[in-house]
Amino acid sequence: MSKQVRVRFAPSPTGPLHIGGVRTALFNYLFAKKNGGTFYLRIEDTDQNRFVPGAEAYIMEALEWLGIAPDETIGKNEKFGPYRQSERKHMYKEYADQLINSDWAYYAFDTPEALDAQRKADEEQGKTFIYNHTNREKLDTSLVLTADETAARIAKGDAYVVRFKTPVDETLHLKDIIRGDVKFETSLLDDKVLFKSDGMPTYHLANIIDDHLMETSHVIRGEEWLPSMPLHVLLYRAFGWEAPEFAHLPLILKPVGNGKLSKRDGDKLGFPVFPLEWNTTEGVSSGYREKGFFPGAVVNFLALLGWNDGTEKEIYSLEELVAAFDLNRVHKAGAKFDPEKNKWFNHQYLITQEDEDLAKAYSPILSDKNIDATKFDLVKIVSLIKERAHFVSEFWEMSDFFFQAPTEYDAKASKNWKEETPALMKQLIEIVETIEDFTSINIETVVKEWMTTNEIGMGKVMQPFRLSLVGALKGPHLFDIIEVIGKPETISRIKKAIAKL
Ligand code: GLU
Fold first, then answer.
1. Rounded distance, CA 109 to CA 154, Å?
2. Which of 54, 168, 305, 492 is 20 to 30 Å from 280 at the Cα level?
């Protein structure tokens, strides 16, 4: 790649960042790092009606948490600042003027009422109203006024918008890195509003100017922006600027059914669609962080939504993703979101964590249960249970019996507690009492020897034994549990079970 790679994530701060936006940020990040380039974050807040307080801070915090923070943004290496469009407001008008002067744009004075009336009139004739070359000279535009007349109306304070004068009858053959050649007929496009008399640019104008001024080499964004591509390319042409390259990422689809993944799908199926929890007066939207996902796992599963490196490999560190990432290998088709697979990724990350770190993460949960974690070999306990866990938050459910004797016994499992069981359990206590070397492997050898010598069936002992210690037929290898809880506790739990069952 010859030119310096500079890519951007340009969200509008209209609420918490949807997971699709996070994936866009991630692909920009990976592409930048892969090519020794720069990843910057620009906040597109020109639409003040949709501005949501806290959303900007949320976006920054989410990217930090995921480990994909931008190289440049508000307050960080502001080489091409400001990075917030509302603070660049003063820059846009001269560009709108430039387009007017070069006949690439025109003033439109139509009031909302006039446009509504026109829309209705068209509908009555079975037509859909579209503001473009077919009617721009019949509407209230500077195209049918003299320069003096236009100036007079502006001076008088008539509200106006500046619209792009889309060329007529041209087939645009554009290149998208992911989609290959894409064709657009300019005559089918509408003359989009670029600027308003309140001094604010629209998304289209501000986006192009900023991408140019901030030296963006590649525009990598969601598929929903593909229809804007012809306008954007034409705007570059109108300004006489070289256009960046474009790549439109596939949509993230619902787990079941068709269409784009929405917050409602998450609510229905019980998974987050936001990286961090988002609180409003209307309620709480859950976040991956608060649900106990590892940021690396979130990054990993998002990377594989619409991309793979052509091998079967699924588990990647961020560094490995950077090394393997290739925009040319991003798929065109939408990527189905699979919440179960996400959990699987988290499990894969969990089992590779150091036991010490997992023990640390588990400690606060135990404190909440008023358990003095220092009295237990937490590192060992965690090592025994983690193979089956998806989240640290599941640890308690999987290991409560290490910390406390069962207070009740699973009803279904208790059916295995037969008439002869108490006598067997009493014999078992005697055997356990004799064991000096209280290690899992030795306890297992001794107990099994006793069973074989006396021809006692495994099931007859092992299920009631587990029930006595755990309260249910769950948990890791029983002899590992016994080693951790120790001899006196093991015996006391068997006695308690004999008394209670
Ligand atoms: N502000 C737009 C958004 O909210 C940016 C689209 C683009 O990347 O051009 O997604």
1. 9
2. 305
Length of the chain counted residue by residue: 501
Record the tokens describing residue 190, joined without a space: 């509408």
Catalytic residue among 76, 175, 196, 263: 263
pLDDT digits (tens, 9 = 90+) for 54-70: 999 999 999 999 999 99
User: What is the per-residue pLDDT across 37-54, written as a single tens digit (0 to 9) for each?
Assistant: 999 999 999 988 888 999
Alpha-helical (H) ranges within 287-338 are 295-303, 318-324
Sorting pLDDT into bands at 50, 70 and 90, what band is 2? low
Residue 79 domain-assigned (yes or no)? no
What residue numbers bound the domain in which 360 lies? 354-390
Best substitution site from 6, 9, 85, 225 to test ligand 1's pocket, by max atoms within 8 Å of Cβ?
225
**218: helix, strand or coil:** strand
CA-proximal residue: ligand 1, atom 5 (nearest): 10
Cα angle value 56/60/63 (rounded, 5°): 140
**81 vs 59: CA distance, rounded Å:** 18
Cα 276–chain centre separation: 9
How confident is the model at residue 177, as a pLDDT? 98
Residue 200 shares a structural domain with residue 116: yes
Q: Is 249 in the pocket of ligand 1 (CB under 6 A)?
A: no
Strands 252-253 and 245-249: unpaired
Question: Is the pTM for the entire model greater than 0.90?
Answer: yes
Would strands 218-222 and 171-176 be described as parallel, antiparallel, or unpaired? unpaired
Q: Do 369 and 477 sit in the same domain of this protein?
A: no
Pairing of strands 245-249, 278-280: unpaired
Q: What is the pLDDT of residues 333-361, one digit of tens each?
A: 999 999 999 999 999 999 999 999 999 99
Instruction: Give ∠ CA 3-5-7 in degrees, rounded to 5.
Output: 140
6-15, 278-287, 304-313: lowest mean pLDDT where?
Answer: 278-287
Quick one: tokens of 325?
């990432």
| Whether residues 374 and 474 fall in one domain | no
Query: Which backbone phi and psi does 38 adopt, to 5 degrees?
Result: -120, 140
What residues pair up with 260 in beta bridges, in sequence order? 253
